[in-house]
Amino acid sequence: MPSLQIRPVRLASGHEVPVLVSDGVQVYETSWWLVDQLLPSLRGSAPNTMAAKMRAAAHWLQWADYNKFNWATAVQSGKFMSAQTIGQVLKWMELEVDLTSERRVKRLRVAPRTAANRTGFLFQFLSWYANRLVEALPASEHKGNVLEAYREWTSVWETKVRMEFPRSAPTRPPETMGEEQRELFLRVIRPGDPGNPWRKGLQVRNYAFLMLLYEHGLRSSDVQQLRMDDLRLEKGIFTVEERIADPEETRKRRPNPKRRGHTRRALRFSPESLEAMKLWLAERAQRDKWPGGTKNPFVFLSHFARTSKALSERRPGQFFEDLKNAYPEKRRKNGLILNVGFNNNYFHPHALRHDRAVRFVLDYDAKYGWDRRGEEAMRKVFGWSLDSRQPAYYGGAAFLAIGVKAMVELTDHRTQMGLAMEAEETE
Asked: Residue 334 pLDDT > 70, yes or no?
């Protein structure tokens, strides 16, 4: 078996593109697959998404090498894949398999969503490669037959995928804070609060950073890349923009926004986030007076060594670790909460994005009733594109959360009634 690895390559445009390497040599087809997606408009997926695509391709190549299957030959001959072969490939994408040793070792199945994503990326690659091969064929009756076989393969593949990985509504509520946790969070992050876990010099900066996450449903990478010229405090708005090959970016690990291509979103400050930002900018203005301080275009700066370096990529996660350590949630063995705190399972920067979206849906539903107008309002508030499907997802997830809460309350009520009846019988 060849040794397959994923290595990053930085293009002149500033994109960091992961490529698949077999025994030290780039796999030509998979490398050009990504480059082909980048060149038309100099846009591309986030590096993490590209790496996931490369892993899907590497997983497929392991199967093809083990089963002596040549996709190029299958396409050019017009055979493509039979329904049975497609089924084998889909089953393979659900497994983690080690073929580097003489004995094949099967590991646990991956999560259904991971397998579905792998399969989607693999279909993109196989379709792209098949199109290039078919276009290279000379015009003839055979080429027409190959095109017909390609359409048939696509139809069978999509049918098999829908059966193997059916799309469904969210099966559990998104990771959000409960009312008590939310109240605790908003109280202890305020500067000057006795329960604030950070020293005085960090409280104002951390408060402004967390309020942007909480009030606007942003990713931590969006806030880390926020620059001073993105702020329009007099108008109460700010912009979130993806910048390619930014010469001002000096961080060793750059925050990677999860978006495709160059996008620019204008968002309106809430009263709370605007107040927090003004407090931080007043403190930030003192940085240029520090000995050794340097001008920096980014809004949020580090405190290390009294310099004005941009906030590191890992720092937001540490904010949440500090809060969890200061306020751990404790439960009994039966699951009852002993004290209100922050749960290790869901309390992280991205959870605030989910929490904000679910709160928006529930607040809008209480005032007007959730419908398509609510989805349009959500796209506008969050700065999402007109065809974004996120409002529909969060709408379903929010009402699922309501149902789960109602079931828990009903169960608690029945338990209390049962205990009361037992007490009466004992008396």
From this structure: no
